[in-house]
């Protein structure tokens, strides 16, 4: 993140909290917004995903007392377009090169000394990784995010599963130990002096940072480029890891596993692993949100006279449901707690749809019984209301 981006972002506004909010208030606001904008709850919503990243970034700063203090001080000093000189006349401001400030190279300025013995450069060292005398220190680099796919059976998706996942990513090159130089002795980039970043003026005295084009942000240049990684210090590597897929995942859901992506460089954080889950169909059960579905055939007499029917469940014993007399074809009943696992650990329901089964063949006894039934109900016309409604229309 550039210095300009850092001081101009209002993280309090992102989380919707006042500047004097307590840690508890910040945590509560973050959790609420994170739930509302989480990618799992907003599938294929790029705006929600971007909003989620912004919320996470704000929480990373404001949720850490040290980072929050440094952020507040940076905003107070630089948020208004110039350095606020506490000791200057009337608290006025003057233009100042932030690159010089954080590099610890400036001399005494108005209102006090800012010499190389620490001071303001050290105040922001934790945020910008550039304390006093840090001009020759290379910057940490976060590892790349990795995306992979896995296919689960219907039951595994409902109950959760641990699956082996083979992934390919950019890792530190083993041939040169990640240095990029085949002799293992790269030199510090003279353009960025090992920081991986260069400053450019933006007017008003500000100096913004961009990745160094000469070393591609690494801070190092290989005099004798490694033949394997071509001087990048990174090489493609494959590894297999056991990944736990939580219970209740749905088809095409994307799961984020923090820190399971490619490793960072020079102490940088690991990237994240995104796993897209595909779920096979089941010959008996279906799914509707957190509920499972099943269609159960019943005989005509069970539907007409009522009774009890046994219904299969996924991976468990059958349940018994009471079928009311006169149950129509297509009616849906509910077996509570026999569905998919929700995020809070509870389960949805099993939705049981009744399908009246019509026999394809009848023996003489059954046929005679049905003939008798037809004669007994000859005066009833099941289509009478249909024709009546058609005439009324």
UniProtKB/TrEMBL annotation:
Residues that hold Zn(2+) 2 according to the record: 189, 192, 212, 215
Domain (J): residue spans on this chain: 10-75
Annotated compartments: Cytoplasm
Keyword Membrane: no
Cofactor note: Binds 2 Zn(2+) ions per monomer.
Cofactor dependency: Zn(2+)
Chain ranges of the CR-type domain: 160-238
Family: Belongs to the DnaJ family.
Full protein name: Chaperone protein DnaJ
Species annotation: Streptomyces flavochromogenes
Lineage per the UniProt record: Bacteria, Bacillati, Actinomycetota, Actinomycetes, Kitasatosporales
């Amino acid at each position: 993140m550039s210095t300009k981006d850092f001081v101009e972002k209002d993280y309090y506004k992102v989380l919707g909290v006042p500047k004097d909010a307590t840690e508890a208030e910040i945590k509560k606001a973050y959790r609420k917004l994170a739930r509302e904008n989480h990618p799992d709850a907003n599938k294929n919503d790029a705006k929600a995903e971007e909003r989620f990243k912004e919320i996470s970034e704000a929480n990373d700063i404001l949720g850490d007392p040290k980072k929050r203090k440094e952020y507040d001080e940076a905003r107070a000093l630089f948020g208004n377009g110039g350095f606020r000189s506490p000791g200057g006349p009337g608290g006025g401001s003057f233009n100042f090169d932030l690159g010089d400030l954080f590099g610890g190279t400036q001399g005494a300025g108005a209102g006090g000394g800012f010499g190389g013995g620490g001071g303001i450069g050290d105040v922001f060292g934790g945020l910008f990784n550039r304390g006093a005398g840090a001009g020759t220190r290379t910057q940490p680099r976060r590892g790349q995010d990795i995306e992979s796919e896995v296919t689960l059976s219907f039951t595994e998706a409902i109950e959760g599963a641990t699956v082996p996942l083979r992934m390919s990513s950019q890792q530190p090159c083993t041939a040169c130990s990640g240095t990029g130089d085949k002799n293992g002795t790269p030199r510090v980039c003279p353009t960025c002096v090992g920081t991986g970043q260069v400053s450019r003026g933006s007017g008003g005295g500000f100096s913004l940072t961009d990745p160094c084009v000469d070393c591609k942000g690494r801070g190092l240049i290989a005099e004798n480029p490694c033949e394997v990684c071509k001087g990048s210090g990174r090489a493609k590597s494959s590894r297999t890891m056991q990944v736990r897929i939580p219970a209740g995942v749905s088809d095409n859901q994307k799961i984020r596993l923090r820190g399971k992506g490619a490793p960072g460089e020079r102490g940088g954080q690991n990237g994240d692993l995104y796993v897209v889950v595909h779920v096979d169909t089941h010959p008996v059960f279906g799914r509707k949100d957190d509920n499972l579905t099943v269609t159960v055939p019943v005989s005509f007499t069970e539907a007409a006279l009522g009774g009890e029917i046994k219904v299969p469940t996924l991976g468990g014993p059958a349940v018994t449901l009471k079928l009311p007399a006169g149950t129509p074809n297509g009616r849906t009943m509910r077996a509570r707690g026999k569905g998919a696992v929700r995020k809070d650990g509870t389960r949805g329901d099993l939705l049981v749809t009744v399908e009246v089964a019509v026999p394809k063949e009848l023996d003489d006894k059954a046929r005679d019984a049905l003939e008798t039934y037809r004669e007994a109900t000859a005066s009833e016309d099941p289509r009478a209301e249909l024709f009546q409604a058609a005439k009324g229309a």
